[in-house]
Queue: 4 jobs
Job 1
Amino acid sequence: MFYGEEDYLIEEGVQALIERTLDEGSRGFNLDVMYGSRMEVQEVVAHASSFPMMSERRVVVVKEFEKLATSDTAKDVFAAYLERPLASTCLILVSTEPDFRRKPFTDAKKHAELVECKALYDNQVLEWLNQQITREGKRVSPEACRLLQAYVGNSLRALRNEIDKLFIYVGEKTAIEADDVTAVVGASKGHTVFELQNAIGRKDIKEALRILQEMLASGQSPQLILVMLTRFFNQLWKISELKTRRVSDSEMSRDAGVHPFFLK
């Protein structure tokens, strides 16, 4: 069972299981993808109880599992299957809003492997971006990752779409830089709070006000801008204090919550 709010990670996990279990030629006969909002429990169990054709395994995927209509009888049918599942079937349940206090989730929790796909934290998103790009054979600068996250946010699906555009844009180039992100993503997204921070950090009042005006005109949240600027000044204050104590750059980076690349 895959569950949680990060649907892109869930999709990756489901696809990885399908690819590992079935070769492409047998998927037409042995892969069933069903939706809880359109199916009855008995239909799911019937598919999961069917033997594979010309293959050792069968895969049954049930998306929107939380929407599966479950009467008391249906819950008993599903629980009975989970007690003695067909060994040749890989049953994959997907739910964005599971309730593990109630059936059939209590039964799934008892018998299934549970994989929670949480939304990533900010620092995890940066690491994820780096992994996504480097595993496809290109290098990416920390500044490019930070800028991409600033433009797009933490939605992995939206970030993956922008990565695909970047690969097309850079072509044979082996590295993705901040200028590439600005050219591809920034053209449609406008200014970011990080550009506003940089202008304030340089004490460039005219540029800071121009960026702020454009951000507000494009509909960006004033509250979010204030929160991010407050965080920025808190980090500056921490770094100033740590510098007076002559701590190492690695300690300063950790205590202030700033990536070593951006510490300077």
Job 2
Amino acid sequence: MNKITSWANLDFNNHVFFNSVAEINELIQPINKYFGLDSFNYHKTFNDNSQIRLSNKTDWYKHYLSQKLYLQSIFELPAVNYSRSRIIWTNINTHSVILHDAAMYGIKHGVTIVEPNHDGYEFFFLGTTTSDSSVINKYLSNFQLLDKFIQNFKSANQNLLLKLHANKITADDWFDNKLKFESINDIDRYSFLTELYQYQLTPREIECLPLLIKGCTSKQIAEFLKISHRTIEDYVNNIKYKMNVVSKNELMSLLADRFALIV
């Protein structure tokens, strides 16, 4: 891992973060054709607060870093702040300066997809140079297709990502960003949905839900929650009863259906 005092001090002309434009442009052809998304910027914040970056709009990204706009972005915080999210840029009231400057480089409308990873969070900034704000409706209606693009990006570019991982950077002044990412945690999301569907689950039973959805066994859930295996089995039986299902397969099917947004 490399340490620098500021992202503004990065060697923009020679760093690996800025020399993959041709590969990115080839990759984004489908979303460019069907969504008009021709701007792709990516960064990942690891659990240790180091970062990697990638862009096909290098002039914009060099401006973003050299002008220290990362200190004004809600997407530049320690990984612990985030949850899986899809955010339309025009809905971010703290980003007026960033959006103004991005427009000077032809990037006008877009969406940020925030994806959890085992060692941090990834941020995909998909933008367009069109002035037609109606494209936002297309994003909202087709997030599943954009998610497929993200999956393909990660599977098709493993060698590139490994190269980036080998050049992780920590910038000292990055920690001066005092913004907050307003989101609710996963347990609160599950609590919301259990109340929405009027399942009278206890807090402990709710804690089991994300682990059940991930396919964890009762023993694994017990180890994670640090309670007995028998207690977990009681919780699972209670959940089945309260959700009016009989078998484990029925329960898994119901969870996949009603909690799919936060899987």
Job 3
Amino acid sequence: MADADGRCAGAGAKAAVKLLAILAGGLLLAWPAAFNAYPLVFIDTVSYLNHTTLPETPWDKTQAYGPFLHLLHWQVSLWPAVLAQGLTASHLIWLAQRMVLGVARPGAHLLACGALAALSAAPWFLATLMPDALTALVPLALILLGFGRLTRAETVWVALVGALAIAAHLSHLPTAAAMVALTALLARRVGPVLRAALPLGLALAVLAGSNLVAFGRATLSPHGSVFLLARLQDDGPAAAVIRARCPDAGWHLCAFADRLPMDSDTFLWDGTSPLNRNADGSPRPMGGVAGAAEAREIIAATLREHPGAVAGAMLRNGLAQLLKPRVGDTLGNEHLALSARIPIARSFPPRELAAFDAGLQMQGALQARAAPFLVPHIPVLLLSLAGALWLLWRALRARDTPRAALLAGALLALLANAAATGALSKPHERYQARIVWLLPLAVMLAALPAARRETAP
């Protein structure tokens, strides 16, 4: 009896230490929120808050991240949401350590989370309330499902995290598909592939179902054609099609053919752009929604008539995106007074608005105060790239599939993310910075010696 009691006490102590390590890791990974004295926000955050507080269904975003935020803030405080993001990432990192090493150790976990917090982009996105916080969790979750030797409860949890992360942003879909393909290549068994594909299937169902309810179309993106058109006219091929076919085509954009091409962001968001103005100069309300059907026609014509030019532009944009991994363009206070501040003032207690206004970001001081912390990111990323290639070669030679999966998954995720965001949108630093922290994580874990596989987690 004494032995049994001792074993139970020992197991309870181990579970408590594990929980504390994951909690501490989550806090480390969200430290910029404490540094700012408030969760970081971006201009897009307003759409996700309005989604459930007005409510107002966003036409230009998916319908997953807004309800996720509401589940945690309940119009009281945004702190639980940012803490949840850090804790979720910490738990997946714990499981990744166990996958690679055979056992997860609290000390090694805190070391990994601390290194990511100090030397990578991870905390600057995990502390920000937008879907970019979940981008790196997509490949991490799918790799764990394929190779992590998870318990049944862990499998359900990781699959749900993966599904939420994929559904939160359309650009996550290609990365998820790439991870499923990698799982098939490395595992060569049906089970791991099905587990890795489960979150992708769930996300596709959520996207199609939510769009059917909101917009009457069971599609992944009822208005996504507008974003691709913005990119294709900026690159030139779609602008050439519009000039060649107008005015006979009868398109709304025919009246503005002489203004194209233009910057894709200006095309999408500027109030004076052809998308958002009528031919007589009057405003065109919800121009992105109104122009979606026409955009599909122009895109189809562009792909038929200029496939080589489109492919070349997508390749150039993808390469440009790959070389933009710096944190910074989400830290300013531009437009925040006219975006995120409004739903906080309208729907949250006065103390929450006061805290938001007092934060470094809203005061315009965050970028300068954060600058010294961002200096190590690029050198660490370059060293991690070299280390990842060397460690991947060693893992493949040793037939260490979990280690190879984590390293190859990180490298492939960076390429897939750059291809998706660069080809379908304007390259921005935040699009690549949000995912590059996977590389130093993979290198740190893969460089550690493995424990005996039979050791209990």
Job 4
Amino acid sequence: MPISELSAVERVARVIAAEQLSINAEGFESSAGDEVDAEWHHYIPQAVAVLKTLREPDIVMADAGDQEIWRAMIEAALTDYEGGAAL
């Protein structure tokens, strides 16, 4: 399985930024890559909120795998973003 070089918080923030900026979604930029690179950090609070919501798996997710491992992975992503402080 590939492992991203970007943090989970940054990846989610970039997706949210792209949704806001790209003409393919809700935005106005026909080519939003450079804009996303410049603006993604403004979407960190929303990214953190998404990850906090995902700490608790739904029933389909729980049935697919180990709930404690999932929770630990999400917590690790949030702790990494906060520089070691638990959220």
